[in-house]
């Protein structure tokens, strides 16, 4: 394996290319300044303008959302897993038919595994531009997104129409639905009744992990964050672990499944047979099965990293798991 092959599977934070027209609420006031990033896989974008950095899909997708203060992502639901950790800023996650069933605020390094089958949204409640990194279940993460009816209606009022083919059309730019393509229908009251309104305590207890707790848990070994025997017990099609300076793996690691490395704090030295490099916060690195590597912090000071590993489990958590 050549060094250029691995280099092509490292996406640097400074090289991320945003899409500002990725979703149906791209013109809706309050949501019109957000940026969407598709790092690994096809992502969930509804726009052909979305740039994909790495098209390989290791059983899940990696993306990110960048938003200025007070900018929000509108209410939507997924049939596959949607996991976020806060890279920069302070973020409010809210859920329910109208976004009023509950909310939780996450700080830098915190992680949330949002239950499938509920309407959810998120907002930058910090004072500066914020960034959250996302892990999305399955190879086709865009196939299971459903918008709350009011989001579709508000978007139409501002010129954006979502076709039943999953493509956005901007009527203000002179675009129209193609012949034979109808607008995406809104959910009926009967269909909406199937979306649960989860209590705050259930979501916080079963689906949120705090950064400082993970730092403590990773004192001697990598902390299991998401998985059947992890802090957040789930089988979303991937497992998430958390590494800090004192919880490094002993010796070289040879994964038998695809692995994605996502540094949170500090600078991490990655060595393989083909390449030595440093991964920094916001960088994303995809390692293939059989790619032996050693990972260590390269400088003194705080160091933390999220590691995502593909599994054979179906891609999608269920909200009823306790």
UniProtKB/TrEMBL annotation:
Domain Cupin type-2: 69-132
Pfam family, one: Cupin_2
Protein name from the UniProt record: Cupin domain-containing protein
């Amino acid at each position: 394996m050549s060094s250029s092959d691995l280099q092509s599977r490292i996406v640097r934070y400074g090289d991320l290319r945003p899409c500002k027209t990725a979703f149906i609420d791209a013109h809706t006031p309050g949501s019109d300044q957000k940026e969407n990033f598709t790092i690994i896989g096809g992502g969930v974008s509804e726009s052909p303008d979305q740039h994909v950095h790495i098209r390989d899909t290791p059983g899940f997708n990696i993306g990110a959302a960048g938003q200025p203060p007070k900018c929000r992502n509108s209410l939507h639901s997924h049939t596959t897993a949607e996991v976020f950790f806060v890279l920069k800023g302070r973020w409010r996650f809210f859920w329910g038919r109208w976004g009023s069933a509950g909310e939780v605020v996450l700080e830098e390094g915190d992680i949330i595994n949002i239950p499938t089958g509920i309407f959810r949204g998120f907002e930058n409640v910090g004072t500066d531009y914020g960034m959250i990194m996302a892990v999305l279940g399955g190879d086709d993460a865009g196939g299971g997104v459903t918008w709350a009816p009011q989001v579709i209606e508000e978007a139409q009022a501002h010129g954006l129409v979502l076709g039943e083919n999953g493509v956005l059309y901007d009527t203000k730019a002179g675009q129209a639905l193609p012949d034979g393509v109808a607008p995406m229908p809104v959910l009926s009251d009967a269909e909406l009744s199937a979306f649960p309104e989860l209590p705050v305590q259930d979501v916080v207890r079963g689906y949120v992990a705090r950064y400082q707790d993970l730092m403590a848990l990773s004192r001697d070994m990598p902390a299991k964050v998401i998985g059947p025997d992890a802090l957040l017990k789930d089988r979303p099609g991937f497992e998430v672990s958390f590494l800090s300076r004192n919880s490094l793996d002993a010796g070289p690691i040879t994964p038998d499944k695809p692995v994605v490395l996502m540094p949170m704090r500090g600078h991490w030295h990655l060595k393989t047979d083909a390449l030595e490099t440093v991964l920094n916060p916001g960088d994303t690195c995809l390692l293939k099965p059989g790619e032996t590597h050693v990972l260590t912090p390269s400088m003194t000071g705080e160091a933390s990293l999220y590691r995502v590993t593909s599994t054979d489990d179906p891609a999608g958590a269920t909200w009823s798991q306790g």
